[in-house]
Amino acid sequence: LKMSCFWLYLPLHLLTATCLCYSIKAPTTSSQQSFNTNLFNFYHSLILPDGKETTVHLLTDIPKRYYFVLEEGRVLAPFSVTVTPCDVPIEWSILVYKSPPGKATPGDHDTQEISKSQKTPSMVSTIFNYKGNSVETYMGMSSHSAVYLLEFLSTERDTHITVYLTTDTTSGHVYPELPMDPRIDVIGIGHTTVTLTWKHSPSVLQHRENIQYCLLVNEKHNYKSLCAAETAIRSPGMKLPPTLALSLSPYLLEPQQVMILSNSELSIINKASSGEVRQVCMGTKNTYTVPNLSPSTQYYFDVFIVNLLTNASAAYTGTFARTLEEPEPKVTELKDGKVIHVVLDGKKQKFYSLQYQARHKKIHFTFQLCRGQIRVHITRNGKTVASENLSGLRYFSLKGKLLDTYLVQLRSTEESNSSVKVQASPHFHKPLFPLLPESLKIKSFSKLRTCRSVTIAWLGTQEESKYCVYRKRIEEDQIWRELQSTDSCSGPESRHKSDKVLCKYFYDLNLQRAVTTETIKGLEAGTFYLFDVYLFGPSGIPVRYHSKVVKTRKKC
C-alpha cells in the first residue's frame, strides 16, 4: 500500500493549499479507477469566481472543469450554481471532495496533520448531474472542508454556456424572479396579429427602473434562455457582445437586420434564411400585440425578464400560435363592355380581383391608369398570361377558348392610393377609348412665349377626333402638388367652365404630319399656367394628355 498526494493551489486570497491524498495500489475495482481519475480532474481545473457570471466555451467531446471553495472561517454556508446552455444540450455535474471528520482540512499544513490524513483516504462523490438545454440551478450547503468541482461536456458540437456561482444569499436575487405561473397566454389571434399577456415578475414590482421584458418571435421553435435566442439569431462568424438584446445599438446590426423604433418600443428584425426573427423590448408592459405577421403561419413566442444592471435574465415558458387564414379576396364580375373604376389602398398592399368569363375566343382588356402606380396580373384558367406595371393606357388582346375564366388582380405598388379604370370586351366590340397617338406629352415653345401668350403643340392620330384645351393659373409652390394629384381619368366635367380655352377637330393620314399647335392668348405676364388637353373618341370617354406647366415672360 502506498500513499500519494496532489497539492491543489487555491486563490491567493485564501492563502492555503489543499493536499488531496489517497492510497494507491493495484486497482481491483472500477470504482477505485474512477476515484483516482476524479482526483486528477481536481488538479487540472480552473477557479470559478464567486458572484460573477462566467462564459465557458466548450469544444466537442472535450470536458471543461472549474472548482471553488469557501473562504476560510465559514463552517457552513448556502451556495447556488446556475448554468445556462446557449445552444445545444450539454452534460454537467458537480463533484465534491471532502476530508473525513477530524482529519486534515484545507489550510492545515502541519506535518503531523498531513501524516494523520494519510491514514484515511479522502472521498470524492457526485452530488448533482444534469443533461439538457434548460437553465438549471443547484442549491446546496457548503463546508469549509470541501472542494467542489464542476464538469461540463458538449457531445453535439462546439458551443458556449454561462455559469453563475454565488455564496451571498443576503443581496437578493441576481436573476430576475419568475411569477408562480410563468406561462405566456395567447388572448387574441388575427390574420396578421397575435396578442400575448403574462403575469408580472416580482422583480418588476421591486426594481421597476432596472427591469424590462423582451419578446422573441420566430417561426422555428421556442428558446429556453435569452442566451440561446441570441446565439440562434447571430449570423455565423459574427462577433457580437452577449448584450445584443439589451443594447439594441445600430452598430450591432448587419445588413439583413432592421431596427424599428415605434411607440417607445425598440425591436430588431433579423431577416434570416429560415424566416424573420424579431426581438422587441417593451419596458414593464405585460401585454403586447405582435403586428405585421403573415396569415396562416405558426409563430413561437418567448418572453424574457431582464435585469439591466447585471445582464441576467430569466425565461417565461414559451408558447406558440398560428395566425388565421387570410380570407378569400372578394371577386368582382366583369361584364362585356362595362367600365369599372377601381381604387386601391396602398397601405394595405392587397390584391383587388376581377373575374371575366369569355363568351368569345378573342378577348380585349383595357386599363387606364388614373393615379399612382399599379401592378396587374392576368390568369386564364389559373395560368398566367400577362403581368406588368401599368402606365397610362394599356391594352391586352388575348386569344383562348369559349368559357375560359380570366382573373385580373390589381395591386398598388406605392403607399399612397392608386386608381385605374378597367374594361373587358370581345375583340370586335366597339373600342372604349379613342385611337391614341405615340405620345401624350404636351410641348411648349420657349421662343414663342410672350408676356400675354404661350404656344403649345400635341400629337394627333389618323382618326378624326375632338381635342379640348384647358388652362389654370397656379402659384409656383403649387406646381408639384398639382402634378402629383392629377387624376388622368377625370374629364373636363371636373373643371371650371372658365378653364376651357377651345375645342377643335383634326387628323392626318400621315402620322408624321399629325401634329397641331395652338396659341393661347389673354394671359398675365410672369405667371404660371397649367395646360391640359383632352382627347375624345367615338365612345365619348376622354383621354387626358400629360399636364404641362408654362410661365409667361415677365418683360416684353
UniProtKB/TrEMBL annotation:
Entry GO CC: extracellular region
Q: Where in the cell is it found?
A: Secreted
Q: Name one Pfam family in it.
A: NDNF_N
Q: Keywords of this protein's UniProt record, alphabetized? A: Glycoprotein, Neurogenesis, Repeat, Secreted, Signal
The Fibronectin type-III domain covers which part of the protein?
176-313, 434-542
Give start-end of the signal peptide. Answer: 1-21
User: Mind telling me which InterPro entries this protein's record contains?
Assistant: FN3_dom (IPR003961), FN3_sf (IPR036116), Ig-like_fold (IPR013783), NDNF (IPR019326), NDNF_C (IPR045805), NDNF_Fn(III)_1 (IPR055271), NDNF_N (IPR056225)
Q: Which GO terms describe its molecular function?
A: heparin binding
Q: Please provide the Gene Ontology terms (biological process) for this protein.
A: nervous system development
Coarse class of the primary localization is secreted
What job does the chain carry out? Secretory protein that plays a role in various cellular processes. Acts as a chemorepellent acting on gonadotropin-releasing hormone (GnRH) expressing neurons regulating their migration to the hypothalamus. Also promotes neuron migration, growth and survival as well as neurite outgrowth and is involved in the development of the olfactory system. May also act through the regulation of growth factors activity and downstream signaling. Also regulates extracellular matrix assembly and cell adhesiveness.
Protein name, UniProt field: Protein NDNF
Native organism: Picathartes gymnocephalus (White-necked rockfowl)
